[in-house]
Fold each of these.
Amino acid sequence: MCDRLQKQMEENREVYNVPVVDFGNLFLFPAEVLVLERFRGQWPDFSVLDLGVGAGRTAWVFSQNAKSYDAIDYAEIRIQHCRELFPQSEHRRFHHGDARDLSEYEDGSLDFVLFSYNGIDYIDEKGRDAAFSEVKRVLRPGGWFFFSTHSLDSFPFQPPFPRRLSGIFKPLGILYRLLIAWKMKWLNRHVNVDEVKERGWACLVDYADQVTTHYIDPRLQRKRLEEQDFEVDTVWDMRGRENDFTPQPDEWMLHFLVRKKS
Ligand SMILES: C[S@@+](CC[C@H](N)C(=O)[O-])C[C@H]1O[C@@H](n2cnc3c(N)ncnc32)[C@H](O)[C@@H]1O
């Protein structure tokens, strides 16, 4: 069942390897702002690696503040676009690379690694493990890893948020929500909900339906991080509220700030 969607994850790279159309969208998530604040005085001492930099949403602010900033993406076109957007220097570099193999970075050479907007969820289970272990290797003891991931608590997916509509648009709105809910069910028709809930992770097709996305039970994510010698510092939901691992079906993304044990 899930293997079929797992295999599709190998195609995710091609989905990202296309020209970027939206460069204006440089918003930050509340949790990202909190992390920038948290290390306010320390950025000038931090060597930062930004994994899966995409269209450069995080590059402007992290590269401006850090001592050094490297960003990689496995989709070459994303890197070309970032190079056009931001001047490169000794201090700010963009290059093609894969989070599963960070061999160009030495052990313990980085202070802060970022994998924002769920970049880690576009690689399969094996790749995910490899990425975590590479991040651990390149971080110095006590170094930080900040990433976000899709929460399996949000599956089965809820229909899109209802809009306030009136008159003829009201039934049309209801119909639209039902259609979307049905489409989500259909796209994940081979996924056995009880089985994946029991296992704690799944490869699913969600509203970003061009890609296949890894979802994980936040409790399992915490357990795995601890097994990998990371200390979980703080977890935030999409609104920047601290999360205590109580299941929240409407929060499909969680941000984890974790620290490599000293
Ligand atoms: C949803 S986008 C997020 C982009 C950016 N980090 C942001 O926060 O806006 C995910 C990005 O991760 C990249 N990505 C996924 N798997 C990767 C991997 N194994 N190595 C490097 N980049 C990867 C994709 O190419 C894509 O650009």
Amino acid sequence: MIKNLSPSRASQFKTCPKQFKFANIDKIKEPTNEVQAKGTTVHEALEKIFDLPKEERNLENLHNLFRKVWTDVRASDEHVHLFNDQSEEREWGLDGLKLLSNYLTLENPALFDPLERERWVRGSIEDLNLRGILDRMDRNDKGELIIVDYKSGKAPNAKYKEPRFFALKLYALLIKNEIGETPAELKLIYLQNSTIHTMKVDEEMLRNAEKEILEIWNNIKVAFESNNFPTIKNTLCDWCYYKPICPEFNKNAPSTVELENCNEKIDEINETLEAINLVGGLDNLPDNSPLKNTNLDEINKNLEELNITKNKIVKDIEEFLRK
Ligand code: SF4
């Protein structure tokens, strides 16, 4: 059973429990694609621009930051195979720079300092541990808190904007619970088509967001208990990384049962090791602790074997997904 939930994981479960299972229980990691890499690089440039003195927060430096961030990560395992050739990478880079130019048509970073950037927010609601990272938090001229999120994609038509605020509503709720101040407004900055959507925060909105996330959490717990993560066919199936192994689309897809069992045992052993490390070793455990007689050599050996098996299954599934 997972211990924490982020707004994006919750949305993934809501959209398709099977996709949630592939990603979070079977832990079949979706490789970074060029859209994600662009989003991450743009986000980082937008974060770092505020490290510069106000008079240096201009287009040239924003573009330079994008180039620098990309230069630092492009050779990593995650990114090295993203492009077939230099011209593809160049096109991708130009798109990223365009998004940043679009940003400057919406805001002037030389005129303000954010209150916080890339801020961890976490908290408990009943038995749910909710956490995430918000892009930016500002104080406006009236001294009110504003929660800001950058989107590298395109803004929907304003009449469909509401569902896109789900994560930000939860961040507002966590901020309120953490610091005792309710943010006044949520702001989504869409870079693809230079659009800002905002939404005022009120107590009813936060109550509804809390109710919705608890409902999703309860559904996740039921799914875990019954080990039932149904597929929900939706408009995004064609972009789903797991489509080749999804039973909706491939009746002969490789089974993930062995992988699931492996992950469960690995999690169990890691929890035991964490608990022992937390007290500084076996000798510091009380005599009546159920972990006192743990054979560390044996469980470390088990862990090693399980990881070998798991990596082999993941490799086979990843090869299948790449076909
Ligand atoms: S292809 Fe569609 S139904 Fe299958 S896991 Fe992905 S989102 Fe769910």
